[in-house]
Description:
Layout: H1 2-17, H2 25-35, H3 39-58, H4 63-67, H5 73-85, H6 90-115, H7 124-139, H8 165-172, H9 178-188, H10 196-209, H11 211-231, H12 240-257, H13 263-288, H14 297-311, H15 329-342, H16 344-347, E1 359-363, E2 378-382, E3 407-409, E4 414-420, E5 439-446, E6 449-456, E7 468-469, E8 474-477, E9 489-494, E10 503-504, E11 508-513, E12 516-521, E13 528-529, H17 536-542, E14 548-554, E15 559-566, E16 572-576, E17 582-587, E18 591-598, H18 604-611, E19 614-616, E20 622-626, H19 638-643, E21 650-661, E22 664-675, E23 678-690, E24 693-701, E25 704-714
Antiparallel strand pairs: 1-2, 1-13, 2-9, 3-8, 4-5, 4-7, 5-6, 6-9, 9-10, 11-12, 14-15, 14-25, 15-16, 16-17, 17-18, 18-19, 20-21, 21-22, 22-23, 23-24, 24-25
Amino acid sequence: MKKHLQYYLSSALNSYGILFFSKNKILGVLLFIVSMFNFNAGLTGLIGVMASLILVTALGFNREDIKTGLYTFNSLLLGIGFGTFFSFNFTFWLWLSAASLLCVVLSVNLRSFLGKYSLPTLSIPFIITFWFVLIAANGYQGMGLVQKSSSLLFELNTGAPSNFTKLCDFFDNLKIPAYALLFFRSVSAVVFQNSVLAGILISIGVFIHSRIGFSLLLIGFITACFVNYLTGTYPDGISNYYLGANFMMVSCAIGGFFIIPSWRSYVWAIAVMPFTFLVLNALSRLLGFYNLPVFSMPFCLITIGLLYFFMMRKNPQKLQLTAFQNYSPETNLYQSLSGKSRLKDFQYFNLSLPFMGAWTVSQGYQGEITHKGDWQHALDFVLKDIDDKSYELPGIKPEDYYCFNKPVLAAGDGIVQEVISHIDDNVIGQVNLQQNWGNTIVIKHTEHLFTKVSHLKKNSIKVKTGDVVKQGDIIGLCGNSGRSPEPHLHFQVQCTPYIGSKTLAYPFAYYENNAKLNTFQIPVEGETVQKPEINAYLKNAFHFQPGYIGTVTTNNGEKETWEVFTDDFNATYFYCRENQAIAYFVNNSNVFYFTRFYGDRKSILFLFYQAAYKIDYSAHAVMDQYAADPERFKPSLWLQDLLAPFFIFTHYLYSNHILFKNDGLSIHIEAKKQVFNQDKIFTNAMICLDSKGITQMQIEQGNQKLKVKWETSLV
C-alpha cells in the first residue's frame, strides 16, 4: 500500500513539476499550491491528473514512463483550463471526463510518434483538446458548458480565493519596478494565474530546481520586452500569458533543457525571440478567425521545429542536444562534461593493440616517411631491444628483425572483409611499389568502421574473407611485404572496406605506456606501448555480473542488500533492496567505473559509488573527476550553477592507488572538492579484497567513520 501511495504521489508531483521541465518535488508542491489559488481550477486540475494516472496505470503502460508525468501533465493543464473558463454543473464534469480521455490518448500517441524522432510532445495534446472543446461548445449552444463571465477567453485572468484576496492584492501592488511585477505575473500565467504572489512562489521553486533554468526565464522575459520596445508590436505591452507560456518557455527549452547549456545555447535563446514574435503574431491572427486562443502553440512549434533542425546536422560541433534527459539543466551539463572524458566506451568501438608484448611506434600520425595526405592517420609498429635496435646483427635478412614472424591480432570483433596473402617479402632495404600495401587484412567492425593491417608475411594469414573474428584472435604474422624496406606492422582505421582507403583518426581503448594506463588515446611516434597487464584480484573482485548479490553491514548496524541487474538498454546497475537506490556502472576487461547514481545519498551504496568510482584492473593509480551533483540541496554550489554554461571553477576530484599485501591488496581512495584550485578533502576510504573478492570498506567523511563488512552470494 505504501509503495502504491508513493507511486501516485511521485507521479502527481512530477505532473506539476514537468510544466517547467522538472521532477523536483519542491517545485511540484509549490505549483500545486499555486494552482489552488483559483480553487475550482486547481481542483479540476488535480482531478484531471489523478484520473489520468489511474487510467494509464490500469491500462498497463510503463510505470517508469508514467512516473515522469509526461502522460499526465497535459491533463493537468486541461483541468486547470476547464476550471478557469467554465462554471461547475453536470455537463462540466461530463465534458471534462471526455476531454481528459482524449487528452490522454493524444499524449500517449503523440509521445510515441514524436518519440521516434526524439522529439517532445510538450503541451500540444492539451492545446488540441481544448481547441476541440471550444469549437464544439461554440457551435452547439455550448453543450451545456457555462463560460465564466469574470474570465475573458483571451486574457486568462483568474481571481484568487476570497481568503487570499488581501494577501494577493498586497503583492500585486508591491512598490517594485513594473517590469518585476510583470515578470512574476508572466511566470504565474503558465498555470493560468495572473498573480504576483503565485509568480514569486513558482520562481522560488524554479530557482531551487535550476539556477540555469531561472536565468533563462529572465533572459526570455528581458529579450522579449526589449524586442517589443524596439518594434512596438504590442504598444500596450506584451500580455503576461504570451510572455510566460511562449517567450520565456522557448528560452528555457532551447537555452538549457533540450540543448546542453553553454554560451552558444544562451545565444540561441536570445536569437529565437524575434522568431517567436513572428510565429505568435501569425498564429494569433489565423486562430482569431475561429475565436480560438493561441495558448502555448508557438512555444511548441518553435521548440520542436528547432530541435528537428538541429538534429539534421551531420556535425553537431559545440551546440549539443541533450542525449539523455535528467530533467535538470545543471545535471544535463555536468553529466555531459563528465561523459566526454569518462564515457568513451559508449563513444568509440573498443579497439585493442594488434600484437602481443611491448612494441614501439616507429612512424606515427602525419609521419615524415609515408603517412601523409589522405593516409596520414596510420601507425607503424616495430619491436626493439634495450639498445633501441629493431634487429639483431647482422640485420641483413627479415629474420634478423625482432617483429618478423610475430603474431598479428584482430584489434576488435568483426568480419574479415579483404585478404591479400600471396605477395613476397622484400629483401632488406628494398620496397615493392607496385603492390604498396603488401599482404593485408581488412576487418569490418561496425558500419563505416574498418581496421587494416598490412605488410604481413607471405602465406601467413590465417583467415579468409567472410570469417568472423574475435578481439585478440591471431590473424597472421608480421612480415616485410609491399612498400616496406624492413619488417614492421602497419595499422590504420578507415571508413570504407577497400585496401587503399583513406585513413581515420581513431583511438585504442586501453594500452600501457611508461607504466601508465592510457584510455582512448592514440600512441605517438617513439612511444612503446603494450596491452594492460590485468591484476587477477581486482578483476575478480569488481567483475560484477547480473545475479550477483552482496550484503553490506556497517559498524552502526545499518544493513543493505545489493543485487546486479541489466536494464532494457543492456546497461548494468546495482539495486539496493532497502531504499531502492540505483548505481549504474561499466565493467569491461580493463576497468570498472560508475556512471550514474539515483536515490538516497545517505545510503551505503552511495558511499561505495564514491569510493569505487573508477578501478583500473591493471592496478595503476587512477585520477578522475566526479560530475557535480546539483540534485542535492547545496546553496554553496548555486553560483557555480549560474556560471556553469560559461565557466567551471568547482571540481570534485577522485584518486586512488593500490597497496599489495600477502593475502590480497587494498585500494586507498581520496576525494576532494577544488574551488579555484583550493582543495578540501571530503572523503578518505579504503577497500580491502582478497582472492574471494571485496571483504570490507573503511570510509571517513568529516567526523563520520564507518567500517563496512561485505558478504557475497549468487542467485
